[in-house]
């Protein structure tokens, strides 16, 4: 059995630089820190989650100056941070206790559901960097966030729904108690005075509750009506308000029937559906925002006198000089004024081979600086920048999609008028044809409105969506927008981007078999000292390795350790060797031939299966890439894709999508963002650039492309369940409407019919949570 | 039937108390972190009560 590290739990590599029992110095330090604070019980309490980032202190994570994010109030400083690396409740306990042991800290509270930390302390403003370093030293990553920007509107809405639900639940239970007494009274001969008392009490409880708990529906219905549309909330509000009004009238005139129980339990059922729906969506969106936030890095800004400071990207102004070190993602658009480096533009253009950049070249936000330090002058963020162009394309594309109407609202559009006509017809029939008193005729007309109660109808969609998105979320697929599932179900064509979507978007060592293990070990142990993506790829390929001490980095060229050099072809390679397709590293030793380490961006392991699966299910599969023709052609051939296009600009991609019927766009780059917005529906991996993740309807985590099949499968299943639910609701209506028209509906029948129909719809939707799709 | 005269108010009062309790718990942030609180109770260190998170949010 391999020994595992006492701190992070990963296997210990041979020749570790840490003490006995540790994988590295960082873990040793963290272990000693925890022991020093007297918190050793942490190791007994925790359970490590293999899906979460290992608890290894990361000395190369982007340095953030936390001072810029402090919110000060009455001498108390507050810092809002997102935490990455929480495995279980013991981590929460460790973070809170470790911080509480610091002298100036007033409060440290981790929210485990949202993985956010609120840190309050008094005194010095320089403190945060020291306080935070306690936690980062343990192996967690902390990223500041703005509490006002994240999710507050959503949380408010969610809480409002929960409050309304509580009130409706309370009222439903009590009104039902009165109603059951009245129903029992039918057979046992309740006196009229007692029945009236019960009705009055029901009114007393139900009316304020209906007024309060129904507000989310009334508001939405009013907004829709004002803009001349109709949605599902219109018939709901109408049914609730009319039922309550008619019942009040009945009670005042001492009649036999009152329908308060129907009105309030309708609200209660619907609020449950609404609340679950919003919470599922909110959690997916929260998780997506969490992923995005962790990508945010600080920008190193150089003053005129040469001193460095770290700023959040949104505080960087035009004309500032920004320093970008090797391995960093460039956060601004600008012109290089000093330095030379290779730039990986794959997220912008899809180009897989890095381009060389030197002074006076332009660089764009979203590209990655691969090899050397650069000084970049930030250029005007006017209409001419690449980002502005892409944002403009996106806005155009999104405007087209805003016209999509959710299936529930489409049904409501036709359903509302039909019900109204039926109800009016009933009134006319009873009043003028059957010659009943106008009061009885009105009663029957309103009974039609109640019994065609949109309860099952209004639950039909949200219940299915809650269960579908919950199921997808367990598999790491976050569905962000409400109608996304419906649109996924209509997809006819699937369009893939290449770099980062069909491929993993990161270099992998390809010629491992040609290199003898000893050389590879030497190369990997030198590479471990560098942040360069190729060095990282090399270490990843080799596995855990101890870093050689005394490695020096030569910017733009490579690494030196004693007399061994690891770096670019021009610096230490064989200049006459044939040029390979992807990036390469060379290892040179005195007196020996240079060894070439070749890298390539591999296809995702299940890309071929997914493409074949999609074809088998009858989807049209397409490939649109910004990369050069050769690599795109190779990928298309490997996946046996016939329809592919290389060297596409963002606009080309949008245009290509226009020619397809209901396309699903899967992409990750900035150059995909407009296409993601333009497509009927879109999906993007969680490694995608933030603009793309925001534009996409759903985000999937992990290396497997199978998420595409899963989403489409679940969406199809969900759509058929929604249709079944609508069918059930209409079936129920077709039985009860004649009863209502004929005037046979008593409150008891209304209540029973409504509850059964809702339960049937919910039970039907639950079938989605298990089983294959 | 006279029993109704005090049973019904008692019922409404008790139910109302439950509702008020729930609304209070919601407002004081006790439903903000269901996952964390479920685990927190298992550690028997002194856990200080939440210092009214809502106060500053409303400001």
Describe this structure as you would to a colleague.
The complex is a heterodimer of chains A (773) and B (59). In chain A, the strands form five sheets. A seven-stranded mixed beta sheet of chain A has the order 15-27-26-25-16-23-24, with helices on both faces. Chain A contains 26 helices and 27 strands. By secondary structure, chain A is α+β, with helices and mostly antiparallel strands. Among the domains of chain A are: 66-150, 2-Layer Sandwich (Alpha-Beta Plaits); 299-381, Calcium-transporting ATPase, cytoplasmic transduction domain A, CATH 2.70.150; 476-503 and 604-716, 3-Layer(aba) Sandwich (Rossmann fold); 505-602, Calcium-transporting ATPase, cytoplasmic domain N. In chain A, helix 6 packs antiparallel against helix 8 (233-252) and helix 14 runs parallel beside helix 26 (747-766). The model of chain A has no long low-confidence stretch (mean pLDDT 81). Chain B is an all-alpha fold and 59 residues long. Chain B has a domain at 28-44 and 51-59. Chain B contains three helices and no strands. Chain B has helices at residues 3-27, 34-40, 54-58. Chain B is elongated, with a radius of gyration of 18 Å. Mean pLDDT of chain B is 77; it is low at 54-59. The chains are: A alpha+beta (773), B mainly alpha (59). The A-B interface holds A 45, 73, 88-89, 92-93, 97, 107, 109-114, 118, 159, 162-163, 166-167, 170, 173-174, 177, 194, 197, 201, 205 and B 1, 4, 8, 11-12, 15-16, 18-19, 22-23, 26, 31-36, 39-40, 42-43, 45, 50-51, 53, 56.
